Each structure stands twice: as C-alpha cells, then as structure tokens.
Amino acid sequence: MRYITSRFLFYFVAFLIAISFNFLLPRIMPGDPVDALFAGSAGQLDPSQMEAIRAMYGFSEGPLWSQYLQYVKSVFTGDLGPSVLMYPTDVTTVLGFTFPWTLFLIGLGVTTAIILGLILGTIAAYKRGNWFASLFPPMAAVLSSMPAVVTALLVFYIFGLQLQWFPMSYAADPSLEPGWTAEYLGSVAHHAVLPLLVIVLVSLAQWVMTMRNAMINVLGEDIITMAEAKGLSQTRIMLRYASRNAVLPVVTSVAMGLGFAVAGQIFIEIVFNYPGVGNTLLKAINARDYPLVQALLLLIVAFVLIGNFIADLTYLWLDPRLRK
Questions:
Q1: Mainly resides where (predicted)?
Q2: What gap in Å lies between CA 324 and CA 102, rounded to an integer?
Q3: Chain-centre distance of CA 179, in angstroms?
Q4: What pLDDT is recorded for position 321?
Q5: Phi/psi at 127 (nearest 5 deg)?
Q6: How confident is the model at residue 293 (pLDDT cuts 50, 70, 90)?
Q7: In this structure, are residues 214 and 242 in contact, taking their beta carbons and an 8 Å threshold?
C-alpha cells in the first residue's frame, strides 16, 4: 500500500507541474494572449466571452497565487472555457468527442503490438539459430526505426492510393448516422485498419527486441537449468518459467511505449485525417485556439502519467518482492 501511495503522489505532483506550465505559458508570452485571441478570431467569439476565457487562463483579479488556485480549480472542474476553433462549443465537449477516437486507436494498436511482440520475442529468443530468429528481429528494427510519419505516408500511398483497399480519411463513412449499428461499427473498423497498421508497425520491434533480450538473460539463469533437469517439457519451461520472469522488464517499458505512441499518434492522425487528439491539436494550433491547445496538451500529459501509473501497478502484481 505504501508503494501505491508513493507512486500516486509522484504522478499527481507531476500533473500539478504540467498544470503549472500551462498556467505560466500565457503569462510569459509577449502582450496579452486573450486580446490577441479575440483579435485573431475574426468575429467568431462573442466579446462577452472574454471574461470567461480570462478566468480560464487564470487572469482574474487578485495576486498571482490566487489566480493559480482559480486556474487549478477550473482544470479539475472541467470549466475550460469555449473553443475558438469550434465556437461556441466548450473545450470539454471537444475533448469528449476527440479523445475516445485516440484512445481507441492507441489502446487497440499498442495492445496488438505488445501481444505480438511478446510472442515473437519469446520465439526469437527460444529458437535462436533458426531462420526466424536471425531474420525477423533485424527486419523489425529497420522498420520501426523509420519515423511514424514516413511509415504512415508509405502505408497511405500503398494501401490507400495505389491498391485502394481501405479508406484514407475520417473515422467512419460521413454519410452514415453515428450509432451502435452493425453498418456504422463496420465502417469504423474499416477506416481504422490503416492507422492501426501503422501503430503496430512502428512499435512492434520495440516489444520484440525487449522481450527477446529479456528472455535470453532469463534462459541463462539457474531456474531454467533446474527446470530442464526435472525433465519438464520445453513448452512449459518457455511459458511458465522463462516468459513469466522475462516479462518484468517489458512492463517497465510499457510506460515509455505509451509516451512514444501518443507522440506518434499525432502524425498518424494528421496523415489519415482521423478525428482524434493529434489532428484536433494541429487544427487548434493553426486557429490559435489557445484554450483548446492547452487542454489537449494537458490531456496528453495526463494520459502518459496514467499509463505510467498502471504500468507500476502491473509491475507490483508481477513482482512479489514489491509487496513486502
């Protein structure tokens, strides 16, 4: 319990630091960012909303510490003000629409890459010397070393433009009414194939090489020698002894993988015009929608921190030594 409490406090403090940077950002900008925001809105914003946006930024009456507390309160209560890009829609409403699409892609893509990586990494380590163990890891490493945007453009060109097997934009057919119908869900799955393929290709090698290296280290330990001396089957040794011990370092790298996935997701969504956080962030930057940009950056930070915290809890479950 002490371990869980300490990790939770650590990530909570990290989130408060991120909030503090967001609070300081408009204050270190030259001029008044709120006035610049209204000047660049081309009449889209109602002047009566100026005070609401000032309050969202924390520009309220009183000393700096009072403004900071007001800003923190607005973050935790979800009162983030209106969006310039989608005025008069609130920023919270925009986040509620875009974040589920990003969570869907990252969750399914990274989970698929991790499962495939663990399986292929285990085989590559346990079957050293055969053609698969010699050929696949280097090929995967070369593929994943390419920037996410380059891989996305290649997949877009080959499977979208040339072969025309899959749609190249949107999360679903715009002509369909959103809902939990078979037709709409099938369209969502069809449109998600190419972005998911890019996520898997970009991140697969990380899990393959991490699991392979961890398995090679475990295979040289005494516990494997003892299991072989007992006459246990190779399959049982690989699954029950080697894999279980080798997966611990992999869990540690999951958190880092989530961070890279969020960063790469921005470019993937832009290439495929997917209505997630990354695509919305680019549009918000172009529109100088500071409230939406700040909220999206905070959301990305929160997602990475939550991923790290979940990885720590998983590590606690896998390693009994931390529970003592």
A1: membrane
A2: 37
A3: 25
A4: 60
A5: -110, 45
A6: confident
A7: no
